[in-house]
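[scheduler] slot 2 assigned
[scheduler] job type: sequence-to-structure, two independent chains
[scheduler] chain ordering preserved from manifest
[runner] begin chain α
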Amino acid sequence: MDNNNQPSHDEGPARSCFFSAVGLFTGDMRLCREWVKRQVLVLQLTDWIFRGVAQVMFVNNPLSGVLITCSLFLQNPWWALNGLLGTLTSTVSAMLLGQNRSDAGLHGYNGTLVGMLMAVFSAKESWYWWLLLPNMFMSMLCPVVSSALSSVASKWDLPIFTLPFNILVCLHIAATGADHPFFPEVRRSPALHLKAFYLQLFLSVPVGVGQVYGCDSPWAGGLILLALLLSSPTICFHAMLGSAAGLALAAPHKDIFSGLWGYNSALSCIAIGGVFYVLTWQTHLLAVICALFCAFMTALALPACTWPFCLSTLIFLLISSEIQAIYRLFISLQQSPQMLQLDTLSNCACLHLKYCMKGLSVIAMHIE
């Protein structure tokens, strides 16, 4: 008997070690989280901050948070500093209020957006240090508003998404305005540096993902997509698909190329496509429809921030269906209210393959 084709005894352990090593850095890095719980408060706070930065994109991975933070510094160091300060202030405020530490990353993501977008919307130049004061105050209110909204949304088992961020930033803009002597607000329109139409159209997909954090650089958007891929290929794929869906409407080219029509659709596509619904080919199509619907909501000229994403996604989470494949996940049963993700790339590929084959079999039955 020829043993040349027999697998060696070393291949199995080597392959197992490889997947174990990959599992340490992908998914939600559960082992890292358990290790951090036994460390000093400074290390725990660092882990919570980077998880909070990543939770904006429904990702619960500190390494992804580090990559996203690098992309923010690549875009604008002043904006990134304000985002990190907002995350820190919001997280510490939640701890002082005695909120659950097991989901500490969830206490920071609204603070990330509050701090980041307050710097983006400021008419003052970078390194205007007085801006840190309203940044800290508004970020400190994030867990207060989040807790109040959660008390209402929990009756329907709904997430609050980025509603606290939307409310607080809009309140700040309304209270200051363009004529405020210390904190004037303007709407920044990202400048276009590219000349080729098709190149602009291609780069608008990563730019749309980056605009979730207020970044208009394709390099920053690409690094954010890499961070999503590290944690969950499913989330990364739906982020690109949702951002591309924002190109479907006949919006002004300047707005399309700057990603302003893609970031809300990207978040909606992620939320429906495998985070709050069990991932099947039916819910995948539902995610695409939600992304397109969100693009139409953007066309209504709603206030800045992520109002179109919140409203359109909440509508799709409240739909009723007798189709068993369209099954909404209860927040209380998820690993965290913002995340339900696959731990490894292999599991993700198997899940996609399973439901693609199931969809093809259904189509074949109808043809017969």
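[runner] end chain α
[runner] begin chain β
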Amino acid sequence: MLLNLKPLNSFTIATMLGFSLLIFFCYILFNFPSATTSQIPIPKSQSQSQLQTPPQSDPFKNLLGAFKKWDLEVGCANFKQKHVGLVKRDVKLSSLQVGVGVGEDQCGELKMDHVGVLVKGWTWIPDNLDNLYSCRCGLSCLWTKSSVMVDKPDAVFFETTTPPFRRRTGDPLRVYMDLEAGRKKSGFEDIFISYHAKDDVQSTYAGGLFHNNRNYHLSPSKNNDTLVYWSSSRCLPQRNQLAKRILSLLPHHSFGKCLNNMGGLDMALSLYPECAKDPNASPQWWDHLHCAMSHYKFVLAIENTYTESYVTEKLFYALDSGAVPIYFGAPNVMDFVPPHSIIDGTKFKSMEELADYVKALANDPVAYAEYHAWRRCGVLGNYGLTRAASLDTLPCRLCEAVSRRGGRDATGF
């Protein structure tokens, strides 16, 4: 039997349709993520480095223990992948003269197979650099301060002494070096050496030969209460002011003449007697420098002058000691150091922000160990090139430059 259904009025239809849409909307809302938000928004105060507000504070003293935690949570494979572009670098940086593959294809430019360099006058270059070197392309290089060893040098090396005003054909080439921030040619040299890549020969401060007689004992235990090491005995106003600002926010030991808070010079040996080079000799601050630094998680390194490519031993001492440098200096410093190895103080908005970061990092063994991963995983990056352009390799690189010019046979006046 057919039912006689009454037609539905428009009000009833609208009510049923609205109810259906409400059910569908609730289903979508409670079963699917929002289509307008791709990730959970993070409050601005937490959107910066996690180290500034770490979820758990884990103060540590044992560096090797921190390394083990990092190995378990991160590991070298992940670190290498993160810095994959630096594992094998095949380009030449504008900040460094030495690059992969550079030099071997230039053997044909050499005009001499042996070069003798005589170092003249007073210079800070150590005597232990004197040697007979076997260089690339079969070139031998004699570097010496003795005129007896090389009575007819192909080049004469000057640093603090001005080279001769005139050079005649048959005279040795004049080499002048200035590694100070305001490097300046003498005006009388044939070859100019400085820390900058655009000069004739570059010499970075990353070498080890000029301080190879120090106590390099490194402590596996890091101070947890006193975080920062600083030592400076040249109290420049600008550097002192900067150091005072940051050190006022961090627990530290200052051993030099500037802002000393240890009661005198050479007090590091009172704290760390194992750092004495020779117990029977009068202590010198440079003898125990690296060993003392190694007891601290951080070393403050401030250059005398903020100049492009002027990256001095202040930074490399800290790296050699196994500490993390807090650095203020050259704007292109990252061209000279390993990946993730230093804290560039200029990248922070304020000293307070920098201090908060350092304190948090000191209480996070995994994050702190990440700053040491480059040396443990063999990811040197630019640092390999920096060492290759250092004072350690200067004799061979200078001898190559002299050979390319022909040494004493180069045209003079």
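[runner] end chain β
[qc] chain β: Residues 1-8, 22-50 have pLDDT under 50 and may be disordered.
[scheduler] slot 2 released
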